[in-house]
Write a structure and sequence with these properties.
Blueprint (H helix, E strand, L loop, with lengths): L20 H12 L1 E8 L6 E3 L4 E5 L6 E2 L10 E6 L2 E6 L6 E3 L2 E3 L1 E3 L5 E4 L2 E8 L4 H12 L9 H15 L5 E8 L2 H7 L2 H17 L6 E6 L2 E7 L3 H17 L2 E2 L5 E2 L3 E7 L7 H17 L5 E4 L7 E5 L18
Parallel strand pairs: 3-4, 17-18
Antiparallel strand pairs: 1-2, 1-11, 3-5, 5-6, 6-9, 7-8, 7-10, 10-11, 12-14, 12-17, 13-14, 15-16, 18-19
Helix pairs in contact: 4-5
Amino acid sequence: MAKRRNRPAATGDETTQILNRDTLAEIRQMSERIPSLIVIQGNDTGQIFKLTNSAMSLGRGSGTPLRLNDKAVSRKHCLFEVSPPHVTLIDLQSANGTFVNSENISKKRLANGDKIQVGSTILKFEMADMDDSDFHEKLYQIITFDDLTSLYNSKYMMKQLELLFRSSRGRYPFTVLFLDIDHFKLVNDNHDHLTGSSVLSELGRLLLSNLRSSDIPCRYGGEEFVIILQDTSAIQAVFVAEKIRKLVAGHEFVTREGQPLHITISIGIAEFSTSYVSVTDLLARSDEAMYQAKERGRNRTVLFREDGDPPFVQVSPTVMNDDTPSPSSGHAGR
């Protein structure tokens, strides 16, 4: 009778890896969809990078597979390792760091929807079906709207201002409101950043609910907002601004713990003028008016008058002068 041989111990190469059902599903899904990066803020907004290789570096160097036009990005800034069903992001000792959802990272496994910041560029990580029409609609939403507030983002705002700047040239008025939340840092410090995010989101909802469909409410950045009022003079815009200021001051926001929270906003107003060289001039005047509102005690509206003496006029909470023109009937009820 032949003597049974002892079976040799299995080596690492011979051992079959057992995958659970969830992991198999993730791999199957990844084989059907392409891990992608969508530039949602920066010089390359709208650019889509497909992560088709097992390792792809991102930077501004000419030989970099994922190349960005951003001087704040290192030549080889970070590396994406693709190992289905996972994608891992590795910082390559970049000068300005790599951030995922505002966290400075050296290495991190990405989740669908993560926001990556390199230099002044923000990218969104997506598992995308490039042939799916829903994806293209989603891409439009990403590059046009701010996720947190559902308002238009700053990139879209600048495009619309440029269009209005070129087309108006004195033929019809348009005005910019520059809004800033008063003491917003205290909201984050006294409560938490989740409460701060909730306040921003709720403010976005209030603006959308109380403006015309032709108005363009935008999140400019942080706690700053810009509203573009088409076919609206500065005097008409005063009444819009006051409606919004009072609405926010009287609204009850809620902390993450369910406690009531009240905030106020300061508003600057500036109307388009043919004397302005660019949209930056218009934004700067409305921004300066907003800072005047801050310096005068906050929870105020200040109007910039190009030929006024003085140029900045506080229109609230003091009563407007008797010689202030009344709004047209088209805006009186707003």
